[in-house]
Design goal:
This protein is mainly beta and 245 residues long. Helices cover 8% and strands 46% of the residues. It has one domain (5-244). It has three helices and 17 strands. A hairpin with a 6-residue loop joins strand 2 (19-24) and strand 3. The longest helix is centred in the middle third of the chain and has 9 residues, at 100-108. The chain is elongated.
Amino acid sequence: MLSLSNGVQRIVVGNYWGVSVTADSGQPYGTLVGTKWQRDDQGHIVVDSASGLPVRDSKQVPLGNYNADWVGGITNTFTYKNLSLSFSFDGQMGGNVYSVTKWFGQYSGVLQATLQGREHDWNDMFVVPNAVYQSGSGAFLPDTVHVLAQDYWHNTFYANEMGILDASYLKLRELRLAYEVPSSIAQHFGLSAATIALVGHNLLLWAKQPTIDPETAFDTSNRQGVENGQLPTARSFGFTLSVRP
């Protein structure tokens, strides 16, 4: 987006759970804006020197963009005698999703990732990895404070960046195995042709993250890239019979 009219710098297209989807002058459309943890110049997360828990930066900053680098798909059919096998793949590479499922799932401790620090018991303690705290002199020093795993994961609720996911995925959208009934048999039933087929939809999903189906965060509205506990795309199986008199 090159610019907005009348010197406007930002239009908020939509927001949910503290994250805004924006149109910013001079930036790609569809930026996801929210809060992050404080970090030092080397990118280490800053924790509170007393509690050992990460400290949120109150500034609203870009967390990602919902637009994919590219989208595509492929469809093909293989035929051998009276049998045919058709398939359709589609997906996207790049883009981000703000997932409330991930964000809230970490807070409540129901995701596999939250096992970190509580492999043995709920009250196990650990030091936040690669974290620093700011000393009284202003210098950043390696964190040594042990925290309860429960407290750490509860604290993730306060930074929106904890809900950002890579939206890349590939789906086996459709698989169809068909058999064309020989005409000599079809004619016994007063038909010139008949085909029976087994069909499956949304059979497989490959994604860069294990939490959600990224496709559920996109619809026809302007507020894209936000997932709020939607059910995953349904897998279905069917049987078809096509006839020609």
